[in-house]
Predict the structure.
Amino acid sequence: MIKAENITKKFGKQTVLKNISTTIQHGEVVAVIGPSGSGKSTFLRCLNLLELPTEGKIWLNKQEITDPKQNKLTVRKHIGMVFQHFHLFPHMTVLDNVAYAPQKVKGISKQEAYQIAKKLLAKVGLTDKEESYPNRLSGGQKQRVAIARALAMEPEIMLFDEPTSALDPEMVKEVLDVMKDLANTGMTMVVVTHEMNFAKEVADRILFLDQGKLIEEADPSIFFQAPATERAKDFLDKVL
Ligand code: ADP
Ligand code: MG
């Protein structure tokens, strides 16, 4: 579904992604892990063109999205993204947050957009918060709204950048549970996370980044039991 080939990203003189290549299959859940500053967010942002790779190509369903002729907004319609800090619209109710983009970007009717939004809010367990404003929600609730909002666009792939890192510990599970459910529906997901148990249980594959390089790409059972590199061993020693 996604193919990245020799992705290099430079910010000024700093090279933050070095020649990363990988392929993500339809329905696959890929966990991206690695130390802070290793390029995980930048890699994710390249996949939906929030950053443009300095070198290399990315394909989404056989279409090269890094082709300068591609319309970034058209590409992003197919890719949902959830951030660490939610980014909800503060002046809109929960229901409006979720129903907004399908109307604006996809041009579907108001009635249909609200139907979809209500269904998705039920799915993430927030029917009772439809009329609330984001500032009245807990972090876990906000993140579940953010997930519902991304899903409202019916994306083919969902990108998550440390979706639970800003949450109080007691709220992490409710968000991971929603993500697990989503994975079980067959959604293609790329998840940057420090939740090693989630990565172990839910991911089909681990990408381990260090200093901008893709150091290991492995099945979770192999990666967590017998990492192939010293760097991954060191990292796992620190976080597990
Ligand atoms: P991670 O998500 O693994 O913590 P990032 O992808 O956020 O890593 O960052 C990788 C490196 O790129 C860091 O050194 C960071 O400072 C740098 N970086 C990220 N975004 C920018 C930017 N917009 N401009 C300049 N440097 C950036
Ligand atoms: Mg990051």
Observations:
- The chain has nine helices and ten strands.
- The longest strand covers residues 14-24.
